[in-house]
Amino acid sequence: MNGNNIFDLIVQGYNGMTRSEIKVADYVLKHRPELPHIMIRDLADACGVSEATITRFCRTVDCLSFNDFKMRAAQVLSADGGSGPASGYDIYGDVQAEDSIEQKCQKLYHVGTQALQQTFEMLDYEQISKVVDCLCDAENVYCFGQGNSSIIAMDAWGRFATITSKFHWISDFHMQAVTAATLGANDVILYFSFSGAIRELSELGQLMQKTQAKLILVTRFPKSPGAKYADLLLICGADEAPNQQGSVAVKMGQLFIIDVLFHEYCARDFKKAQENRERTLNATAPMLL
């Protein structure tokens, strides 16, 4: 057996595991394609064990952490290229090096449309209405994210900046923390995090608990650690493994949500939105060659 194959290590150590760890092993071996995307809390619920048991299981199979376990699972699954018992996941949406340009385009088109379809199916229209209510009532809306998600947050700010000046974007985490600590009761943070499981989100959430400001979180995982700090949640589609960060498919799902929020926001005061839209267009028109 290949010592680097995480699934081989699970099989090798199976008989020496505790009863709780065996529950995890059984689930993991039967649901391999899910592993790169699953959150520790969701895996624990699916196996009927505690999160601490999941952590112990990861160490039993020589992984440093749950994220390390997911990374190694993703590596095996992507290397299989869709064959064998670990099939079902590929780092580039099943795009192979030997594919023609046409084949690559077709496969990536499928991945993109699938991401939009998944996001569409997960939309909660009542929740969207509540989020837009919150944005409309806010005095300031701060668009935050880390890494690739910060770029999405900038896109959100850029979209809304064409119709209102109350949206802001801050990329530096230290300044995000300063802002979160001084928020007013009518301020809102619109936060983008695919995993919902990053330290910065939790730290901002803790800071915001001392204020009356609201946190809106756009994430793939409603049971993620950061979700407990959110007043409102919006779920985006498309799956992304730890070794696939920044995938275009994930961004497409998030941008779709931004567009939905933008158009509903405009609809609440269409005349004012149109007037501001005209002003911003007139401001940039002279810049065209």
Notes on the structure:
With 289 residues, the chain is of the alpha/beta class. It has two domains: 6-80, Arc Repressor Mutant, subunit A (Orthogonal Bundle), CATH 1.10.10.10; 114-287, 3-Layer(aba) Sandwich (Rossmann fold), CATH 3.40.50. The protein has twelve helices and five strands. It has helices at residues 6-13, 19-30, 40-47, 51-60, 66-80, 101-122, 125-137, 148-160, 173-181, 199-208, 248-268, 270-284; strands spanning 140-145, 167-169, 187-192, 214-219, 232-235. Strands 2-1-3-4-5 form a five-stranded parallel beta sheet, with helices on both faces. Strand 3 (187-192), helix 10 (199-208) and strand 4 form a beta-alpha-beta unit. Helix 2 crosses helix 4, helix 7 (125-137) crosses helix 11 (248-268) and helix 11 (248-268) crosses helix 12. The chain is globular and about 70 Å long. It starts with 5 loop residues before the first helix and ends in a 5-residue tail after the last helix. The relative contact order is 0.12. Residues 81-92 have low confidence and may be disordered. Residues 131-271 form the SIS domain. Residues 4-80 form the HTH rpiR-type domain. Keywords: DNA-binding, Transcription, Transcription regulation. Pfam families: HTH_6, SIS. This is MurR/RpiR family transcriptional regulator.
